[in-house]
Structure formats: structure tokens, C-alpha cells
Amino acid sequence: xxxxxxxxxxxxxxxxxxxxxxxxxxxxxxxxxxxxxxxxxxxxxxxxxxxxxxxxxxxxxxxxxxxxxxxxxxxxxxxxxxxxxxxxxxxxxxxxxxxxxxxxxxxxxxxxxxxxx
Length: 117
Hints:
Layout: H1 2-20, H2 25-45, H3 68-99
Helix pairs in contact: 1-2, 2-3
């Protein structure tokens, strides 16, 4: 189970980095989302991968439990990443509608255009 989760985190991170390095804005947004998913799965895996264990510690008897802190962190991260993705999509959409291009490359200035002489 740990190998599967570690492989999923690695694949999501690699795909996210590949998409972030693209020169278009919408693949960059998709790459950021994939990296966010990778971080969420990583955070979730830090609380031990136990199935069927309750997230409540019983002080009267010894039972297996799951740490609820990583689950709370992942829920918070999901909400924050959703808001961040919505803002980035709106910025990219505004840039696309104003320039009719979603390229992130800077325009090339002609020689001597920035000189103060």
C-alpha cells in the first residue's frame, strides 16, 4: 500500500512539474492542481495508512486509531487549493481574453527600444 501511495505522489508531482514548465497558461494551472493533489496525498499518508480504524483515541482501552490531524490538514488544503485555483483561472482567463493568446512567453522588444538616449 505504501509503495502505491508513494508512486502516486511521485507520478502526480512529475506530471505537475512537466505541465508547469509548458509555455501556455492553462497547462500551468493543471500542473499546479496536480502538484496540489500530490501534496494532499502526501499529507494524508503522513497519518499512517490504516483502513477501518477510527480517528478517535480511546483512553480506556488499547485500540488502533488513525491520527485525525493529517485528515484535518488535507481538508483545509483542499479548500485553500480550490480557492487558489479559482483565482488563477480567473487571472489566466482575463489575460487570454485581453490578448487572445494564452502564451506565457514575454514579447521580444526590438534592439534599442528600452534605451533612454
